[in-house]
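Quick one: structure for this chain?
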Amino acid sequence: MSAEILSLSFIPIVGALIGWWTNLLAIKMLFHPRQAVRFLGLTVQGVIPKRQNTFAREIGKIISEELLCNDDIVRKLAENASQEKIISFLLSRFDLVLKEKLPTTGPLLSTFLSSEKLKNLREALAQELGEMMSALVIEVVENAQSDLDVQNLVEEKIRNFSVDRLEELLYKIMEREFIFVERCGAGIGFLIGLAQALVYQVI
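Got it. Here's what it folds into:
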């Protein structure tokens, strides 16, 4: 193998290294430098540290408007409100009082309450509890709707994240994608270097 061919074969390798390093640097510059620094008259800072507040605001807005709007959350609260379970628990306590407490604490009263009357009383209590629970759920839902601010909650959470934590989370979620980007850079750099080597060979 001649020295010329050997030197030309290094061009794709160097191109691959440059492409890989360039994409790796671009990924690192998402998070670094943490603080703004001056370099050749320019202010340089990582994209995420520089725009963390903007990202927090935009992500909070998207989540509150597209994914978790107040109306959807309130609707779910209303749907999942365990009214029947609460009513059933209260009625079971009522039955317990009638069975265990009333004979000892109110023996005179128990003599006037027949089984039929107790049944009617229980049914009336169940109906009253149902109406009370419906009103309570409506009140809770209305208060939740006025107090709940999904956008502000998400925005505050992201804004309070340290950049180290954000970097850790993004690498955990997108590690494969970052590696793919690095390899794409290497592959493209190699192809460009190979094309250059072929052009030099022809020339």
